[in-house]
Specification:
Among the domains are: 85 residues, conserved putative lor/sdh protein from methanococcus maripaludis s2 fold (Beta Barrel); 86 residues, Elongation Factor Tu (Ef-tu), domain 3; 76 residues, Helix Hairpins, CATH 1.10.287. The chain is 27% helix and 34% strand. The protein is built from four helices and 21 strands. The protein has a six-stranded antiparallel β-barrel. The chain has a four-stranded antiparallel β-sheet with strand order 6-5-3-8, with no helix packed on it. A hairpin with a 7-residue loop joins strand 10 and strand 11. Helix 2 packs antiparallel against helix 3. The N and C termini lie far apart (128 Å). Pfam families: Beta-barrel_RND_2 (PF25954), HH_MFP_RND (PF25876), YknX_C (PF25989). This is Efflux RND transporter periplasmic adaptor subunit. Belongs to the membrane fusion protein (MFP) (TC 8.A.1) family. Keywords: Coiled coil, Signal.
């Protein structure tokens, strides 16, 4: 009995500790169940936006250009040979008939002499055939020869005459070629380019000098294909000389190349200068200001990067009450990197221009730091291009 009583005493503190630990765990569990879970953070995407408006789109693009003559002749020899002298330099004024350069005439003169000898030989054969025909006809009257012999003599005489005429024509050609040893000017003008030097062996048609004919001047410049599509002959442009930017010159587009350059992929444009004071000198560098696209007058435009293409057509994302909303739009064209909107947007709406592919309908958005929300979508920066290459 004494042993049994001692064992109950020994178990009593352990049981008390177990009960206390269980109660504490229960209290902790109840306390944990009583607390609510933390709410998830809301997904707010940063975006860039612009505020669209109406008005004239841009002030027109500006391109580098060069002043060139409207008519430029590339003069060359009509025969090949070694050029012995060139009598003009850059800037030399020339008159019709003035000798500009000469070839070595020796070979041409020898060819001319050979042609003259062939003419003399053909003439002798013709005279012999004529005399033979005359004798044959006299013998035929006396019945000493047959009629076929007379016909044969007449045929030989006609062949000799044809050979003589051919030799004369060839001699005339050789005479002309001998005269071609001197290169002369066709019209009045000024030398603007030299393509050959004395001592050089030239082929027929190879350019020797370039002459600007007349006083009319063109401004020549290159346009990217997108900008050239809206340009037509008769469109006025403004020209500003780099040497005298304070005095703009009017010009009118005269030619627009129908195809782009296969290497540079640009369109060559020529405009006639209206320069009565003669401010534009040949070879001068200038800038050409194109008029603004008339389609953009009082139009709403957005950057091309803001446009979303889908099965239902084009659309843009706008910010409405702090959330993104997709708005279908109708396009009327483009000017540079701006898309003209015909319907779907109104002035004052905020259009998302960056981050459009990572947002969904109704998603909360916020402006990226440092981005002004009131940036205008109607301003197109002036474009520029490399100076037109002289070709």
């Amino acid at each position: 009995m004494t042993i049994t009583h001692t064992s109950k005493r020994a178990r009593s503190p352990r049981r008390a500790l177990y009960l206390v630990a269980t109660a504490a765990a229960a209290v902790a569990l109840l306390a944990a169940c009583g607390k609510s879970a933390a709410p998830p953070q809301e997904d707010i995407r940063p975006v860039r936006t612009i505020t669209v408006g109406t008005g004239q789109l841009g002030a027109g693009a500006v391109f580098a250009a060069e002043i060139r003559p409207r008519v430029e002749q590339r003069l060359s020899f009509r025969v090949g040979g070694k050029m012995t002298e060139r009598l003009v330099e850059l800037g030399t004024p020339v008159k019709p008939g003035q000798v500009l350069a000469r070839l070595d005439p020796k070979d041409l003169q020898l060819a001319q002499a050979a042609s003259a000898a062939q003419v003399a030989a053909a003439k002798a054969n013709l005279e012999l055939a004529q005399a033979e025909l005359k004798r044959t006809q006299e013998l035929a009257k006396q019945n000493f020869v047959s009629g076929s012999r007379v016909d044969q003599a007449e045929t030989q005489m006609r062949a000799a005459r044809a050979q003589f005429e051919a030799a004369q024509a060839q001699a005339n050609v050789q005479g002309n070629q001998a005269a071609y040893a001197a290169l002369t000017a066709d019209k009045s003008g000024v030398v603007v380019g030299v393509d050959a030097e004395a001592g050089q062996v030239l082929s027929a048609g190879q350019s020797v000098v370039r002459v600007a004919v007349g006083s009319e001047r063109d401004v020549v410049f290159n346009l990217p294909e997108q900008a050239a599509r809206a340009l037509r002959p008769g469109v006025p442009v403004s020209v500003s000389l780099w040497a005298n930017p304070a005095a703009p010159i009017k010009a009118v587009v005269r030619e627009v190349a129908p195809a782009a350059d296969p290497v540079a992929r640009v369109i060559l444009v020529r405009a006639s200068l209206q320069d009565p004071e003669g401010l534009a000198t040949l070879g001068a560098t200038a800038t050409v200001s194109l008029p603004a696209d008339p389609r953009a007058a009082q139009a709403i435009s957005v950057p091309l990067a803001a446009l979303v293409q889908g099965d239902a057509g084009p659309s843009v994302w706008v910010v409405k009450d702090g959330a993104a909303a997709r708005v279908p739009v109708k396009l009327t064209g483009n000017v540079g990197n701006q898309v003209l909107i015909g319907s779907g947007l109104s002035a004052g709406q905020q259009v998302i221009t960056a981050g459009i592919h990572t947002i969904r309908e109704g998603q909360k958005v916020k402006l990226m730091p440092g981005v002004a929300a009131a940036a205008s979508a109607t301003a197109v920066p002036a474009a520029s291009a490399a100076p037109a290459a002289a070709k």
